[in-house]
Amino acid sequence: MGELRLEDLSARNIVAANGLSLKPGQEQFIAPVSYAVAASVINPATAWQRVVVLDDVVVGFIHGNFDPDSPHEEFRACLWRINVDAEAQGKGVGKFAADALAAEARKRGFDHITVIWEPGEEGPEAFFHHLGFSDIGQTVYGETIGALQL
Length: 150
Prior knowledge:
CATH class: Alpha Beta
Distance between the termini: 28 Å
CATH architecture: 3-Layer(aba) Sandwich
GO molecular function: acyltransferase activity, transferring groups other than amino-acyl groups
InterPro entries: Acyl_CoA_acyltransferase (IPR016181), GNAT_dom (IPR000182)
Strand order of the largest sheet: 1-2-3-4-5-7-6
Low-confidence stretches: 32-37
Keywords: Transferase
Number of strands: 7
CATH superfamily: Gcn5-related N-acetyltransferase (GNAT)
Protein name: GNAT family N-acetyltransferase
Order of helices and strands: EHHEEEHEHEE
Number of helices: 4
Number of domains: 1
Strand content: 25-35%
């Protein structure tokens, strides 16, 4: 496998990011209800959005949020969304992106990042646990809140 790199999300690569494929059953886990509700109040200035590129092909997307003033602790430094193309899953792309988000959080002075996911057989729970996230609670919608200490 070639070398992975990050690029800011831009007009040049957004179509490729939107076209990332999923494995069957994964579509239902893309955006937990909590994120859809919070999206109406998220500040675009706090968003950290990157694509992961391998051999000049977009193979992943990560959206983090850094808002130390958020009234919701789980949104102050969080992994908002991560998507790895079906063909690239299991090859370290997601870990690479999550590690970059964690490094950015450390650089900004955070001591942990959070993520929210919907439980389910085809869901991302095993992936987040593999990265080191620990379950710390649930949202009012029954989604799991995980935290990764930095």
